[in-house]
Fold Oxidoreductase.
Amino acid sequence: MNRRLRMGMVGGGQGAFIGAVHRLAARLDDCYELVAGALSSDPTRAAASAAELRLDPTRSYGDYRDMARAEAARADGIDVVAIVTPNHLHAPVATAFLEAGIHVICDKPLAVSLAEGQALAALARRKQRLFALTHTYSGYPMVRHARELIARGELGDIRYVHVEYLQDWLASPVEQSGNKQAGWRTDPALAGPAGCLGDIGTHAWQLAAFVTGLTPSELAADVHTFVPGRRVDDHVQAMLRYANGARGLLVASQIASGEENALNLRVHGTRAGLRFSQESPNELWFTPQGGETTRLTRGRIDSPAAAHATRIPPGHPEGYLEAFAQLYRDAALQIVAQQTNTPAPPESLMLTTVDDGVAGLRFIEAMLESQARQGAWVGV
Ligand code: SOE
């Protein structure tokens, strides 16, 4: 890459785990230079975070709710903005920067309603700007290989999809624990109407869709809250039906005591089945119907998609940060391709974008509609 892209960041300031992940991911492949930030809704914290990151204080956009400063970002020659705010600010912040002609890399979920998400997709198209969504897990090499295997027909016709995402960090009432993410992800005014559903339910949805190339046509949901007094869901499950006749189960829970970040996917077709576990991301389990199970790793596959999404030789584990960095790298490849009027590497197009985000919001709205109708089957 002949020059690093100039990046601003909105949100993700002090104490934000995912803010640090975005900054490390942007730095790992040296594609970006973080030059400015509006890192908090509190100007004092914003200034302290900017100083901590050695950002030019004259380029601190202060209160990130003041979107008028997006023009300042354009004047600063910012190529792309990373949005790492609570969910309710994704749409207003992204809208301001897209209108200023600036590309967007935004944390999931895309927005707090399908209508907001569809408006963002239309704006990004009209402004011809990239809108990347950081669905981390599609950045893993072995996830991209799983997608290739299914696309090549190695599993045959898909019959059953099982995706579960289990955590336990919200198993107790932590809203007032000082955990920054717990504070806003359990507040419907900041997170939107979907708690666990919007946070990790969309990850589960997107991983199953990314790997299988299929999205359910209907679902029957149980959207539940275990912790008394909690104002958003903390456990969701759904039965899925696909247009090709396949069936599926999706579970996302943040009260699953003993589980840390257990995202597991199983896909079963007429010819073979596969299993992926996010907590062991350097391997993929593949079993032909009636055959032996094989542990696939980067050193034992011929996969352009996996090769593109890796940095160090097989046997040297890559993890969550590298998967996140892959999304930033793919975004940079696409932005530079547009700026230089050259084609982006095909593998970089596996990046999840605003359209994936809209599909995730459609899933959320179907889940909430089914729940409102006592678990009735609804279209997605
Ligand atoms: C909390 O559930 C969380 O930090 C999510 O918000 C991230 O998207 C996920 O990658 C890890 O867990």
Q: What stands out?
A: The chain has two domains: 5-129, 141-312+358-379. The chain has a mean pLDDT of 93. The radius of gyration is 20 Å.
